[in-house]
Amino acid sequence: MVGVMAGEPSKQHDDGMQPMKRLDIVVDTLHLSRLLTKLRQAGATGYTVMPNASGFGDRGDQRADDVSGVSTNACVMLAVPLESAPQVIEAARVALRKYGGVCMVSDCQWLEH
């Protein structure tokens, strides 16, 4: 998987790596633009969207090939500096409460290049 971004790295580490929080969010496509707006308003400066995500969960099968788009999900991946992570995570929480979806938060390292 390629394409993590978001947020301005705040500190340069000797090894060229910066600790950050990674958010992997699955949301239905109908609410994707609203989620992205909330994330940007909370301080996320970038993200990667993987459309047509399929899977299975509490809403049953979510098919990537649904013509109507009603049961189509998208996956949003972003890395956020530790300083702005609480605001971005809370924005995701509020959006997911309203629109549904899931969010996984994990520690990650940003590779300076």
Description:
The chain has helices at residues 32-41, 85-99; strands at 17-28, 48-53, 55-57, 60-62, 73-81, 102-111. By secondary structure, the protein is of the alpha+beta class. Strands 2-5-1-6 form a four-stranded antiparallel beta sheet, with helices on one face. A two-stranded antiparallel ribbon has the order 3-4. Strand 3 and strand 4 (60-62) form a beta hairpin. Helix 1 (32-41) packs antiparallel against helix 2 (85-99). It is elongated, with a radius of gyration of 15 Å.
Average residue pLDDT: 86
How many helix segments? 2
General shape: elongated
Quaternary organisation: single chain
Order of helices and strands: EHEEEEHE
Query: Which strand-content bin applies to the residues?
Result: 35-45%
Contiguous low-pLDDT stretches (5 residues minimum) are: 1-7
Percent range for helical residues? 10-25%
Tell me the span between the first and last alpha carbons.
18 Å
- Strand sequence of the main sheet, in spatial order? 2-5-1-6
